[in-house]
């Protein structure tokens, strides 16, 4: 078996490490920060506990598969609770709409708001179901870089494949698909927000990504007790049991390539030889900063734009807002204006959507008795030249506080804060070494190619693999975890067969 270096201990890196160790490889994780889990970090202060990054866990089957690799049962490591409602939505006109866990109840709630849209929502979910099925069969669990990797169109062009290709609705965007099915603007705005899980505009992302809605409705929204931080903790424990060597405070500055193969890394200035390397660092920055040369030229010519960034306020309060659900969206007054600002103009939205997590609804221990540990996330553009977030944050914070007191029934919010911390796009950029402060890897814009990301098996360098939110199949907890599994599986296949090691 191979000796493998994993650069970065984010969710993709940890999933790859556990999977490879379960298959008998000798694995070393090299992480520059002094914690493992990357964006899935936590903040504790004065009796409050906050997840700092991801808060919504979907598709737990991906995580289950990583534990199953080692013959373990995920439930021995994680206590997951299914949430209902999945989201509570607050609109500028005062409407409150719950996205219920049960799809029939969700449709009924929508029907109460807008009669014809009960069926419209069901129609949309049928389309999303078909798209999610196509994704499952052609896109997931294998290294994919473009459409050639998904379907062997020349060899398999039969009626079934043709019908799958048609189902992808390549001529349509996410927003276009939603508008065909539901008529009420508030319901449209809610459905458009599924694509915010991957930090892209519904007006520019391909309709195939509507499948995300089905994955959430069908498989649920989950909260791991102890917060999403419990996920990297559980994966690290699994890896330790399997013999993974975790090294924190270790910064990798180079991947050495000899005769087209990755052969070593330079970590804290020391050259360490490995048979194979998995990079959980941002894929663009891996090629640009760690590999360089012809490989970077080969990779870099493709248009690789960062997905959106965001600011997070972590607010410890001396009161609870019982009208909040665990997950809430306080929607912008005008989604077109919001998406144009963030994705086209590259400036903060004038009236943004705020996502609020109130985890004490499920786990009261996250705040002192009677209090609340609120997490408020507002999407912003990825970092643009000249944007200085130390100067921009106060105005954006004021906008958010105003929005929440106006549209989410939190008039006294400012006066109830006893602990306050924040995270800006610049912090995200520096802490996790991502591309332009991106929260969710690379943007998914483009009707035909929008869903494709750099493949997990490098086409440029043999024995180099990519895991994480900026590699296939993309960002978000389940996708980053799957990406780690695919990188590990591709590496294992290459290590255990004599055939060419790189996809042709
Ligand atoms: C504020 C915020 C909210 C989010 N909300 C959600 C949500 O609700 N649901 C959801 O599913 N997803 C959410 N996400 C996205 C999700 O967190 C990410 O997609 C996922 O965690 C990314 O994992 P990753 O494997 O790409 O690794 P990352 O978390 O990006 O970690 C990469 C690691 O590599 C390390 N590293 C990089 N370069 C080097 C180097 N050269 N040497 C050594 N170490 C290096 C970094 O320090 C980092 O620890 C959110 C993210 C953020 C920031």
UniProtKB/TrEMBL annotation:
Belongs to the carotenoid/retinoid oxidoreductase family. Residues 11-490 form the Amine oxidase domain. This is Diapolycopene oxygenase. It comes from the Bacteria. InterPro entries: Amino_oxidase, Carotenoid/retinoid_OxRdtase, FAD/NAD-bd_sf. NCBIfam families: crtI_fam (TIGR02734). One of its GO terms (biological process) is carotenoid biosynthetic process. Transmembrane segments: none annotated. Its EC number is 1.14.99.44. It holds the Pfam family Amino_oxidase. Keywords: Carotenoid biosynthesis, Oxidoreductase. Pathway: Carotenoid biosynthesis. GO terms for molecular function: oxidoreductase activity.
């Amino acid at each position: 078996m191979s000796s493998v270096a994993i650069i970065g201990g984010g969710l993709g890196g940890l999933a790859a490490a556990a999977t490879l160790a379960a298959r008998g490889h000798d694995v070393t994780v090299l992480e520059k920060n002094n914690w493992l889990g990357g964006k899935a970090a936590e903040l504790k202060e004065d009796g409050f506990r906050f997840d700092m990054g991801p808060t919504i866990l979907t598709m737990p089957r991906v995580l289950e598969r990583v534990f199953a690799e080692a013959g373990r049962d995920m439930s021995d490591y994680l206590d997951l609770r299914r949430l209902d409602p999945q989201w509570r939505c607050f609109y500028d006109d005062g409407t409150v709409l719950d996205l219920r866990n049960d799809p029939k109840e969700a449709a009924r709630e929508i029907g109460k708001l807008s009669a014809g849209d009960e069926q419209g929502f069901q129609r949309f979910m049928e389309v999303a179901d078909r798209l999610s099925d196509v994704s499952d069969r052609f896109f997931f669990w294998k290294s994919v870089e473009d459409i050639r990797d998904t379907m062997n169109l020349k060899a398999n062009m039969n009626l079934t494949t043709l019908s799958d290709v048609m189902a992808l609705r390549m001529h349509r965007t996410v927003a276009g698909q939603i508008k065909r099915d539901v008529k009420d603007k508030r319901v449209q705005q809610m459905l458009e927000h599924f694509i915010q899980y991957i930090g892209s505009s519904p007006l520019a992302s391909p309709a195939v990504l509507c499948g995300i809605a089905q994955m959430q409705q069908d498989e649920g929204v989950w909260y791991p007790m102890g917060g999403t931080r419990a996920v990297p903790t559980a994966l690290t424990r699994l890896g330790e049991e399997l013999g993974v060597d975790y090294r924190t405070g270790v910064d990798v500055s180079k991947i050495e390539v000899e005769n087209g193969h990755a052969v070593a890394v330079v970590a804290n200035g020391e050259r360490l030889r490995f048979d194979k390397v998995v990079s959980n660092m941002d894929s663009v920055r891996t090629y640009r900063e760690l590999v360089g040369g012809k490989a970077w030229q080969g990779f870099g010519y493709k248009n690789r734009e960062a997905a959106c960034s965001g600011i997070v306020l972590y607010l410890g309060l001396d009161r609870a807002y019982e009208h909040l659900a665990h997950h809430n969206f306080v929607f912008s007054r005008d989604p077109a204006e919001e998406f144009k600002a963030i994705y086209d103009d590259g400036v903060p939205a004038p009236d943004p959507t705020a996502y609020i997590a109130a985890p004490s609804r499920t786990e009261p221990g996250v705040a002192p008795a009677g209090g609340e540990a609120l997490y408020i996330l507002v999407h912003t553009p990825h970092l643009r030249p000249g944007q200085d977030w130390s100067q921009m944050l106060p105005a954006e914070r004021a906008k958010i506080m105003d929005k929440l007191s106006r549209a989410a029934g939190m008039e006294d919010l400012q006066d109830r804060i006893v602990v306050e911390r924040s995270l800006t796009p610049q912090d995200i950029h520096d802490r996790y070494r991502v591309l332009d402060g991106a929260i969710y890897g690379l943007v998914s814009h483009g009707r035909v190619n929008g869903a494709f990301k750099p493949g997990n098996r490098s086409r440029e360098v043999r024995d180099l693999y990519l895991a994480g939110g900026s590699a296939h199949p993309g960002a978000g907890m389940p996708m980053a975890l799957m990406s780690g599994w695919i990188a590990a599986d591709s590496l294992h296949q290459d290590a255990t067969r004599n055939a060419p090691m790189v996809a042709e």
